[in-house]
Design a protein that fits this description.
The chain is mainly alpha-helical. It has 21 helices and 2 strands. The model has no long low-confidence stretch (mean pLDDT 83).
Length: 407
């Protein structure tokens, strides 16, 4: 019975996306169906075979190496920042400061035409399989480990040339990113094999959900990969170009930091105002926990377990995944209580493995604020609800597809 409900949940999550779609008539159901089948196949492959997990781990190790290199620059200028918090990754050192290396590196690859060439051919292959535009298809691979702010930052030239609607698609997809530097921390708190399973499932889920929520037809002449422009037959001098890239990365970090601090503080303020009512149970976490309850039940749990799962989900959306992972770590790693069930362990781990929360909205809006013009930024900022909905639905869809094969 619970397995049947789990199967039903996938259809329900797709249905919710369709209900809120901003252009129902133009949803490309063939493309959606192909990517959904691919996601189900990968869920089966990653939960049943070690080969898939090894491949994902290899990609993660590559990006971790890049972040480690960035840490050398951070250690030179700000050594105390890396040793704070007992040396554990923190938001600034793991998610923001590496931008100062990652963005210039990718800009260099763009300057010499290497990155546009890679995007063109990988994009063509993914477009052939998924039916998505070339850049959106490649973006989904980039964001698998690069992280939402980094992947947007290295795509600046492309974002400037794309329409506001396509930019909005990327904003929604970015809600389901993770950063490679943080994956190692995840695997210390929750089952690592399920963390690595979640990463590619989130990417495919993001394609499915955004294709339904924001279907966008891209004409062939617009489905192009942007290169560094030249003026009068000459490119901008390399070191001038590199200097602009570094300054732009620094500016982006400041914008993102300010935006995230404000969003998290505003959420805390709302909770403080709720506390004035005298109802201790009235918090954003509990409100979202109630909202998430029917969806948690659909993932294949009895009422009591579903309520507990929903509370964890609500907490994750209001705070972040680290808060919940820290709370459940001992139980889930020891397979105790609610997490004595392997199904519960994989569903919760996969749901938690993404940046989908209120703070991430601030990060993405801050990133676009520093990357695109006012018109495009306002288009995205006016649709914040869609961004959160996309992140939640992708997490639910990934958890449902992974949980379907583990009981």
């Amino acid at each position: 019975m619970l397995i049947a409900i789990n199967v039903l949940s996938i259809l329900v999550f797709i249905g919710v996306a369709y209900l809120f779609s901003n252009d129902k008539k133009n949803v490309q159901w063939k493309s959606v169906g192909i990517v959904l089948v691919l996601e189900l196949f990968l869920a089966w492959f990653f939960t049943q075979f070690k080969a898939g997990q090894i491949a994902v781990q290899g990609a993660a190790d590559g990006f971790n190496w890049l972040v480690d290199v960035a840490s050398e620059g951070i250690a030179f200028a700000l050594p105390d920042w890396l040793t704070a918090n007992n040396g554990d990754p923190n938001f600034v050192t793991s998610a923001l400061l590496p931008i100062l290396l990652v963005v210039p590196l990718f800009d260099i690859l763009t300057y010499f035409g290497i990155l546009p060439w890679i995007i063109k051919w990988i994009g063509k292959a993914l477009t052939f399989i998924t039916g998505q535009p070339k850049f959106e298809a490649f973006f989904s691979i980039e964001m698998m480990f690069l992280g939402n702010t980094e992947v947007l930052a290295v795509s600046k030239n492309q974002l400037e040339q794309m329409s506001a609607r396509r930019n909005f698609t990327l904003a929604m997809m970015s809600m389901s990113c993770v950063t490679s530097a943080i994956i190692g921390s995840y695997t210390q708190m929750v089952p690592g094999e399920y963390v690595l399973t979640a990463v590619p499932l989130n990417i495919l889920g993001a394609i499915v959900i955004t294709a339904i929520l924001n279907p966008t037809k891209v004409e062939p002449e617009d489905d192009v990969i942007v290169k560094v422009d030249s003026q009068n037959g000459k490119k901008e001098p390399f070191f001038s170009f590199l200097g602009d890239s570094i300054l732009g990365a620094g500016k982006l970090i400041l914008i993102i930091t300010a935006t995230v601090i404000s969003f998290v503080a505003l959420a805390a303020l709302i909770d403080r105002l709720f506390s004035l009512t005298g109802f201790n149970w009235l918090t954003l976490e509990n409100i979202f926990g109630v909202i998430m309850f029917p969806f948690a039940w659909l993932l294949g749990f009895n009422v009591q377990d579903a309520f507990q799962m929903a509370q964890y989900m609500g907490t994750k959306l209001v705070t972040n995944e680290f808060v919940v992972m820290g709370d459940i770590s001992k139980s889930i790693m020891a397979s105790k209580g609610l997490f004595s069930s392997e199904h519960a362990r994989i569903v919760m781990t996969v749901f938690l493995t993404s940046f989908a929360n209120f703070g991430t909205i601030g990060m993405i809006l801050g990133a676009f604020k520093g990357l695109v013009n006012k018109e495009k930024n306002e288009y995205i900022s006016s649709r914040v609800g869609y961004m959160l909905l996309s992140g939640v639905l992708v997490s639910l869809l990934s958890a449902a597809t992974a949980g379907l094969f583990v009981w």
